[in-house]
Design goal:
Helices cover 49% and strands 38% of the residues. With 140 residues, the protein is an alpha+beta fold. The protein has a single domain, classed as 2-Layer Sandwich (Pantoate--beta-alanine Ligase, Chain: A,domain 2), CATH 3.30.1300. The protein is rod-shaped. Keywords: Membrane, Transmembrane, Transmembrane helix.
Length: 140
């Protein structure tokens, strides 16, 4: 009879240890999945912001090219366009022989800014547009 009591105590201890192991493993798996999901969401948000800012730079370069080929004035001050339902602000400024096109997009979690330095050279009747520098910055 005494052996049966000891075996019953060991069985309870084994069951508790197995349950604890399963619980710790479950919490670890949940934490890993949650962390991976948050990382994926952040990467997706960052990519969307980058693409929106790039769209603003492309719009600014298009407007710059349009102004030069059609002999119109450059847009004055920041311009806002809507891309995929989000406002994107861009501006075109002259810097000597270069043009600086800056685009910025913000959401509740931060701001993404892209700045491109553009040079336009003329050869006869043709214009050549070169992007010399392209910088991206992300901030709060």
């Amino acid at each position: 009879m005494k052996m049966e009591k000891k075996q019953g105590g060991y069985a309870l201890l084994v069951v508790l240890l197995v349950m604890m192991f399963v619980m710790v493993t479950g919490v670890t798996i949940y934490t890993k999945i949650n962390s991976d999901t948050q990382t994926r969401i952040q990467e997706e948000r960052s990519a969307k912001m980058r693409y929106l800012a790039q769209a603003g730079v492309e719009e600014g370069i298009y407007r710059l090219h349009q102004a030069l080929t059609e002999k119109k004035d450059l847009p004055v001050g920041p311009q806002t366009i809507e891309v995929s339902g989000k406002p994107v602000t861009y501006s075109v400024k002259t810097k000597g022989e270069l043009y600086v096109v800056t685009a910025e997009v913000a959401d509740g979690k931060g701001t993404t800014r892209i700045q491109a330095q553009v040079r336009i050279s003329k050869t006869g009747t043709q214009q050549k547009l070169e992007i010399l520098d392209y910088q991206r910055s992300v901030g709060p």
